[in-house]
Design brief:
8 helices; 7-stranded parallel beta sheet; Rossmann fold; alpha/beta; about 260 residues
Length: about 260
């Protein structure tokens, strides 16, 4: 049956930045599709709520304290995953930060912090997890970028640069690993109503208005609407798709 190809039953997925927002939504969607989960974040205690939500779906779940800028942390995350589940089928690179500030006021330290977290962290996780996937000749990676990796917008230059880099990193890895059984794709959310969006967008009526003007559907997306697309991208239903970036944005990039 066609629906069976959307199942993640028996798969093991690592999700970084899993303690809230899109990471939490992706975890819940993948759990409902049957995947066992490894939830990673810098603050291990902050993962407790998500672990409980996932466990309620009837799948196995562990949490791992992980700083995606530390190779040693990522190595430990991989080893703990292999010890618990024996394999890694899916990696979702999701840990990220934003900076809303006029470019001329952005410090060098702020720029580096955003680029390191949003791009270098993805590279390190992809490299270390990818080593295991390439050895098995099987795996799927999903990089969480943004429509701002595809479009310009004022006062978020560092964020835009990092997300544009994620889109290109996705293409590079997809081409490099295509014959090694590893698919690499990218999801580009538009305005999604998360805690970060409420802080950076909804708290400023002018910024909220600017966003809604660009969205033909005239609403923000729900986190679940990102999680469900990630399930498709990780499933066998997307087995011939690699190197692609899917915008889930209410029509933003079509406008």
């Amino acid at each position: 049956m066609a629906l069976e190809r959307f199942s993640l039953q028996g798969k093991t997925a690592i999700i970084t930045g899993a303690s809230q927002g899109l990471g939490e939504a992706i975890a819940i969607s993948m759990a409902e599709a049957g995947a066992n989960l490894v939830l990673a974040a810098r603050n291990e205690a902050s993962l407790e709520k998500v672990v409980a939500e996932v466990a309620a779906k009837g799948v196995k779940c562990i949490k791992v304290k992980t700083d995606v800028l530390k190779s040693s942390d990522i190595e430990a995350m991989v080893q703990k995953t292999l010890a618990e589940f024996g394999q890694i089928d899916i990696l979702v690179n999701n840990a990220g930060i934003n900076l809303v500030k006029p470019t001329i006021d952005v410090t060098e330290e702020e720029w580096d912090h955003v680029l390191d977290t949003n791009l270098k962290g993805y590279f390190l996780c992809s490299k270390i997890v990818g080593r295991e996937m390439v050895a098995r000749k099987s795996g799927c990676m999903i990089n969480n970028a943004s429509v701002f990796g595809l479009r310009g917008f004022p006062n978020i230059a560092a964020y835009i640069a990092s997300k544009g880099g994620v889109v290109q990193l996705t293409r590079a890895l997809a081409v490099e690993w295509a014959r090694k059984g590893v698919r690499v794709n990218c999801i580009a959310p538009g305005y999604i109503v998360t805690e970060m969006a409420k802080r950076d967008i909804e708290s400023n009526p002018k910024i909220l208005e600017q966003n809604l003007l660009k969205i033909p559907m005239k609403r923000g997306g729900e986190p679940r609407e990102i999680g469900d697309v990630c399930v498709f991208m990780a499933s066998e239903a997307a087995s011939y798709m690699t190197g692609e970036t899917i915008a889930v944005d209410g029509g933003w990039t079509a406008f």
